[in-house]
Specification:
The complex is a heterodimer.
Chain A: H1 9-40, H2 55-82, H3 85-116, H4 125-146, H5 150-178, H6 198-241
Chain B: H1 2-14, H2 18-37, H3 41-62, H4 66-73, H5 76-82, H6 87-116, H7 124-148, H8 155-166, H9 168-182, H10 188-217
Helix pairs in contact in B: 1-6, 2-3, 2-6, 3-6, 3-7, 3-9, 6-7, 6-10, 7-8, 7-9, 7-10, 9-10
Classes of the chains: A mainly alpha, B mainly alpha.
Chain lengths: ~240, ~220
């Protein structure tokens, strides 16, 4: 039993159809639990007051925005190397979700920045690189939409994802060079003793799991839609051919 | 390769001022800046490096969508792809021709325009050096974008969305080098990083662009 068996669309449809309700249910459950716990059952921060609670949406959304881009990169690479259609369609399905996560991260950041920094937007390296990431998502989605032939579109967007990833990383470090940061450092890391306080840490983990599962559910759903759209297209072509 | 370069240059120079247009666009954009912002020389000197660099990006972008489009329409690109010359070399030559006709003229006019924007004299050599080091990267990154959008009917607009975000590192390091020189600090770090970006795109750009072209021609 190999992972690659799910590159077969029929097998993928069967598995994803069975898994989708479970993933969606778990996503709703963990998101609801995490957000309720985070919003109502945690204390206010002694300096930031209740605005600290934006962390439960902002941090998971920002993490997903980056992780989805990495996932698109990996899926594009799989398409270029092994030419599995499901992989290309998964990359296509993931892009709008990633773009929305970027918008959520930017908007919640603006909501928090208004009372805390005194302005909703600062040209800070982190904020700016997120803006750039959003543009990369837009370009990727636009290129998919612009090309008629699906295989050619998959090829070209994969090249764009490769080139874009290189430049996304490059831009991330270039903007550090360009401006001093105002954004706080990482709130979470595996190798550090000091993270956010435990009171916030556990509901935050739950929220991250919820966002991840939500993405997974959306990804499965959207990939299934793409596969079905592709089948309809093939049927149309067959009918037109006679 | 020399024959191809000669052909590209001749086409650019003789077919309706393709080369002159980029420079004219550069001139107009920079003229618009003081008109929009106001004639205070202190403010203009402060923003001059950024304004000149942004105008250079836009001027390079302007002629990019014709880089492969005309050859794709009349079938020359198919012939070039079948020729014994590797497609990577074709892309490199075309990008080089694009730089010679749009990037290089900017080097000549940029110092003159910098004087009108009251850029300090000490930054002048660095402006030319930074443009010389950075504009090849613009052509080579742009070639990749142009190769991706070559078959599309309205590729030009899409091209700007794809290519301009890729120009960010070049813009940051290039404008920063000039800005540091204008403030009397050492621009060496920014300049070296700019050179690194440029050399990297020179080495890798043709491969990405040629891969995209092959996909488009298949």
């Amino acid at each position: 039993m190999s992972f690659w068996e799910y590159a077969n669309p029929t097998r993928f449809m069967r598995l994803s159809g069975a898994a989708l309700p479970w993933v969606a249910g778990l996503a709703a459950l963990s998101l609801a639990a995490g957000l309720i716990w985070g919003f109502f059952l945690t204390p206010d921060d002694f300096r930031q007051g209740s605005t600290v609670k934006i962390i439960f949406i902002h941090v998971p959304a920002a993490m997903m925005a980056i992780n989805i881009y990495v996932m698109m990169f990996a899926a594009s690479l799989v398409w270029l190397i092994r030419r599995h259609h499901v992989s290309a369609l998964a990359a296509r399905a993931a892009a709008p979700v990633g773009a929305m996560m970027t918008v959520i991260a930017l908007l919640t950041g603006a909501l928090w920045g208004q009372p805390m920094w005194g302005s909703p937007w600062e040209w800070d390296p982190r904020l700016t690189s997120f803006f750039v990431l959003f543009l990369f998502y837009l370009g990727y989605i636009a290129l998919w939409a612009a090309i008629e032939d699906p295989d050619k579109a998959a090829d070209l967007t994969s090249v764009l994802a490769m080139v874009g990833s290189v430049f996304a990383v490059l831009s991330r470090y270039a903007v550090n060079f360009w401006s001093q940061g105002l954004h706080q450092g990482a709130s979470l890391s595996m190798d550090r003793q000091e993270n956010v306080s435990n009171v916030f840490w556990y509901p935050l983990l739950l929220c991250i799991a919820g966002f991840f599962l939500t993405f997974l559910a959306l990804l499965l759903l959207r990939t299934r839609t793409e596969i079905r759209a592709r089948r309809i297209r093939a049927l149309h072509q067959r009918m037109a051919a006679g | 390769m020399a024959a191809l370069l000669r052909r590209e240059l001749l086409l650019a120079l003789r077919s309706g001022g393709g080369a002159g247009l980029g420079v004219s666009f550069f001139l107009v954009t920079i003229l618009l800046m003081p008109l929009g912002i106001g004639p205070e020389s202190g403010l203009l000197a402060r923003i001059a490096p950024g304004v000149i660099w942004v105008a250079a990006l836009l001027a390079c972008l302007l002629s990019l969508d014709r880089l492969f489009q005309a050859d794709h329409e009349d079938g020359t690109l198919d012939i070039l792809a079948l020729a014994p010359l590797p497609l990577e070399a074709v892309v490199a030559v075309k990008a080089l021709a694009h730089w010679l006709t749009t990037g290089l003229p900017l080097l000549v006019v940029a110092p003159v325009l910098a004087v009108t924007l009251a850029l300090p004299g000490a930054a002048m050599p660095w402006l030319v050096a930074a443009l010389a080091a950075g504009t090849p990267a613009l052509s080579f990154i742009g070639a990749t974008g142009a190769a991706l959008t070559v078959g599309l009917r309205r590729g030009g607009l899409l091209l700007s969305l794809l290519v301009l975000p890729l120009y960010i590192p070049t813009l940051i390091f290039g404008a920063r080098a000039v800005d540091l020189a204008a403030r009397g600090q050492s621009p060496a770090t920014a300049f070296l990083l700019l050179g690194a970006v440029s050399l990297g795109t020179l080495a890798l750009g043709p491969f990405a662009a040629a891969a995209a072209l092959r996909m488009n021609l298949r």
